[in-house]
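Here is a typical sample entry:
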Amino acid sequence: MAPRLRVLAGTSASTMHPITDLVNTGTPHPLRSSVFEGSIIAYIKGFTDEHGNPRDSEYFHRSDREGVTWSIQVQGRFLVPFSSDDILFGNTFDKPLKLPWGTSAVLKFMNYIDPTLDHDLGSTTKPWALSPLVSTMPHMTHQRISLPDNTANDITSSPRTEAMSSTPFPPKTSLKDSTPDLYLTLVDESDDTASLSSGSSSASVSSKHSASSSSSSRLSSKSWRRKKRELRWDEKIAGLKNLNAGDSSKRRAYFASREKRKEVVFGPQDIITTDFCYGFISFAPSLALQLPGGLSFDLIKYWDGQPVRFVCCQRKGSRAAGEASTLDEEEDGDSDDPWGRVFWCIAIEIADDDD
């Protein structure tokens, strides 16, 4: 028999609040910190409430979610710009894990699902398994919004924007990849290329002037380099636009490249909605890990009672876009944590008898 579960959520491990009463209801729990604002919901198949009564959800009866046993959905925005390569998602733990035999098979399965996964689950201090959010999420949407003029210089203290409030969450139907505005997040460290991304016409004007004033049929070395940058920029835009086809496999394959992840920056204008949902963990009638090929683990035998924590966090030692130096220890998570500061997190733990 599966144990009764308790669920908590928040913007850090130390500030999480119980949301057990919201599980499977579709009611969002708000998230707010100096670097992130949004909402989170959780669905767990076979979940029972504090009285031991099952609490079902229509989410698990949708044809496109057949076989799914849990879902963690988040909608929000980063109030400070971060490279998509430095926004990670996965599991973190506060003490060593009691790993079962066959762990190598589990890790091979996880790497098959997500080739960008990095981990140290055998750590003798704080185990972890993290991947870039853009390459690991099975379902994700992105929308670029316009910000009110009065928030341009003080975005961290601004209220939730009207555009974000009008975006339905949770969505009435299952989330499918939709990223028509993703190309607008493209950045480049080159000043010339950056001017292209901002829509400046100075590059094209300069190029035309150079071509018209040249007595040679060949482009000058400078204008040729500029032309190559323009072509590369157009290719990057086309690559991101090609992802907007409702096919998450295209997005995940594209962002398997760290170079491509570094070219995308998410900030206050970017509304991101994700659905992290899978079916290889069952919660009822017993708690078990089930892998292809019939391999199964009774998780109760190995669960030592510490919370299973899903975390969206910053890469350790990385900088917010535009920062001149690394974050201080207070903002970059606890100094001995292998991960950086937390944007949001949700934890599942065994409920006490009096919960």
User: Anything to note?
Assistant: Confidence is low (pLDDT under 50) at residues 155-159, 191-215, 324-330. Helices lie at 103-113, 133-136, 162-165, 191-197, 202-213, 221-241, 248-254, 258-262. The CA atoms of residues 2 and 294 lie 20 Å apart. Residues 5-146+163-177+265-350 form one domain.
